[in-house]
Write a structure and sequence with these properties.
The protein is an alpha/beta fold. It has three domains: 2-244, 2-enoyl-CoA Hydratase, Chain A, domain 1 (Alpha-Beta Complex); 267-425 and 463-492, 2-enoyl-CoA Hydratase, Chain A, domain 1 (Alpha-Beta Complex); 434-462, no CATH class. The protein has helices at 2-17, 21-29, 35-42, 102-118, 137-153, 173-176, 195-201, 208-212, 214-219, 231-244, 283-290, 335-350, 368-372, 375-388, 403-408, 432-439, 447-461, 465-469, 482-492, and strands at residues 49-51, 74-81, 84-91, 122-126, 159-163, 166-168, 180-184, 189-191, 226-228, 297-299, 307-314, 317-324, 355-361, 393-402, 418-421, 426-428, 475-476. Strands 10, 11, 12, 13, 14, 15, 16 and 17 form an eight-stranded mixed β-sheet that branches. Strands 1-2-3-4-5-7-9 form a seven-stranded mixed β-sheet, with helices on both faces. α5 (137-153) links the parallel β4 (122-126) and β5 (159-163). α4 runs parallel beside α5 (137-153). The protein is elongated and about 95 Å long. The mean pLDDT is 95. Bound molecules: hexanoyl-coenzyme A (HXC). Residues 23, 96-97, 99, 129-133, 140, 143, 166, 168-171 line the site of hexanoyl-coenzyme A.
Length: 510
């Protein structure tokens, strides 16, 4: 017995050393934490329970039989984030470059399987040279097992990927299948084909960061959601995100105690929308003034900023917020915004999170580039997501609700539960000038006539009453009372239950 305990302590110490002090120092010199240090930041103190510390790889080729490090380059297990259970795997770059062997993959799969069984999120911390080269196809099979589980767990438990080092080749597809990707600037990168191969194949010269760094993926490709300065900041934000989320699709989102009055009025909102319909204003001001305590967790803030998405609370309950941003592209929906919004709406719907939409949209973005890149099929994704969503949906039209974009963004016609409009709302097929130019083409001789026609159109359509007369808007509300009205609506909708007809799955325009 004493002998076994001695062995146990020895093996534990060996596993904790990872690839040895030299490699740990190198990791620190790059500004990176080790796999275990990262887990300590992620979880509540002393809550982590490690599994499979003694797992070893089974490869005997290329002299690997002489190189065994218990744990095989990934630390796995479960712990708590603010007292709620969360599973984790954290790749250890100091052990064979964090590369994925058959045994390493089995460890990841074990925590994923258990997370689905008990209904708890999985956080995957990626820092890896990819497939373990010495293991060949066994490693590829390991990746495939992880991918399959990512897909099976999608919409069942929240999956969050944190990229804190290299993530290249087919390995990128595990994070890509998860719900959220956080990256660290400078030390993390993601690409399918790296700069060395590009140099020979396409004769393009580019650095790792310029090809697939955090900045690229949070501003241009939209692959990642948020970029951070260092490991600690990224992991603390993962904790914040988890606080908004339900543990699984079988659980309700957590209620956060609030002292913010449900009846709080915000008189400053009465003057938020400028009189001139072409003047922008910041929709984030509205969001921050109506959510509990002004706390808003924005997702993808630097990608397609013409659409703002993120989480806040109303009356303590997690709520997904989708809002056009008049400050960018006048709030038009383009391809990137449509895809960003669609994915967010689908996440909320999968995880019982109600959706509040603030609508001020002049339309889909015109342009040859948008048409040729497929705004039709990408815009349809957002429409599909809203129409498919059965969670409570409440929409507030602050100003423009024009054309197809009005219909798409949580309109009554796509089964929104409650639709409010501010007095400044205009629900119409298009703006006044465009409409008059089409209706009276060739008939208008003078500038004064044009102005008169525009004024007449505005009187008829640039208001919320046409839609309200038909019941497409449930009420015209004063901007200052928006928080109160939203809190009441969402509380009333808490037990909303919609039965969907049976089908294998829908076929959204992916
Ligand atoms: C085995 C690996 C490894 C790998 C790195 N190492 N990658 N061992 N399999 N894939 C080992 C190195 O031998 C080294 O061991 C240690 O990890 C650190 O690597 P370095 O190269 O010294 O570190 P660095 O200079 O920081 O470069 C990191 C790196 C580079 C950019 C990740 O190692 C690299 O390019 N590795 C190969 C990446 C790759 O092509 N992977 C396959 C991708 S395809 P020692 O003992 O010296 O410390 C793929 C397919 C997935 O993953 C398919 C899914 C379906």
């Amino acid at each position: 017995m004493r002998h076994i305990i001695g062995q146990l302590e020895q093996k534990r110490a060996l596993a904790r050393q990872g690839g040895g002090q030299k490699r740990i120092d190198a990791q620190h010199q790059r500004g990176k934490l080790t796999a275990r240090e990262r887990i300590e930041v992620l979880f509540d103190p002393d809550s982590f329970e490690e599994w499979d510390m003694f797992v070893e790889h089974r490869c005997n080729d290329f002299g690997m039989d002489k190189e065994q490090i218990p744990g095989d380059g990934v630390v796995t297990g479960f712990g708590t984030v603010n007292g709620r259970p969360v599973f984790v795997y954290s790749q250890d770059f100091t052990v064979f470059g964090g590369s994925l062997s058959e045994a390493h993959a089995e460890k990841i799969c074990k925590v994923m399987d258990q997370a689905v069984k008990v209904g708890a999120p999985v956080v995957g911390i990626n820092d890896s040279g990819g497939a373990r080269i010495q293991e060949g196809v066994a490693s590829l099979a390991g990746y495939a097992e992880v991918f399959q589980r990512n897909v099976d767990a999608s919409g069942v438990i929240p999956q969050i990927s944190v990229i804190l080092g290299p993530c290249a080749g087919g390995a990128v597809y595990s994070p890509a299948l998860t719900d959220f990707i956080f990256m660290v600037k400078d030390t993390a990168h993601m690409f399918v084909t790296g700069p060395d191969v590009l140099r020979t194949v396409t004769h393009e010269t580019i650095s790792h960061q310029d090809l697939g760094g955090a900045k690229v993926h949070t501003t241009m490709s939209g692959v990642a959601d948020l970029a951070f300065e260092n490991d600690v900041e990224a992991l603390l934000y993962v904790r914040r995100l988890i606080n908004f989320l339900p543990l699984s699709n079988r659980a309700e989102p957590p209620l956060r105690p609030t002292t913010d009055s449900l009846d709080r009025v915000e008189p400053s909102l009465n003057t938020l929308v400028p009189d001139n319909p072409n003047m922008p204003y910041d929709i984030k001001e509205l969001i921050l003034k109506v959510v509990d305590e002004g706390l808003f967790f924005e997702i993808k803030p630097d990608f397609a900023p013409n659409l703002v998405v993120g989480f806040g609370h109303f009356n303590g309950a997690t709520t997904g917020i989708v809002a056009n941003q008049p400050m960018v592209l006048a709030g038009c929906l383009d391809i990137d915004a449509s895809v960003k919004g669609a994915r967010f709406v689908r996440f909320c719907d999968a995880f019982n999170i109600p959706i509040v939409t603030f609508l001020d949209v002049p339309g889909f973005l015109p342009g040859v580039a948008q048409e040729h890149a497929g705004i039709i099929r990408h815009g349809a994704k957002l429409l599909f997501a809203y129409a498919e969503a059965t969670v409570p949906k409440v929409t507030v039209i602050t100003r423009k609700g024009y054309g197809g974009a009005y219909v798409v963004m949580g309109s009554k016609h796509l089964r929104a539960d409650i639709n409010y409009a501010w007095p400044s709302a205009e629900v119409a097929v298009m703006g006044a000038k465009g409409a008059v130019e089409i209706l009276y083409r060739g008939d208008i001789q003078t500038e004064a006539e044009l102005e008169a026609r525009i004024a007449a159109y505005r009187d008829a359509f640039a208001n919320p009453f046409g839609a309200a007369r038909r019941g497409f808007i449930d009420d015209v509300i004063m901007p200052q009372s928006t928080r109160r009205r939203l809190c009441k609506a969402l509380t009333m909708l808490r037990n909303k239950d919609v039965a969907a007809p049976h089908r294998k799955h829908a076929n959204p325009p992916l």
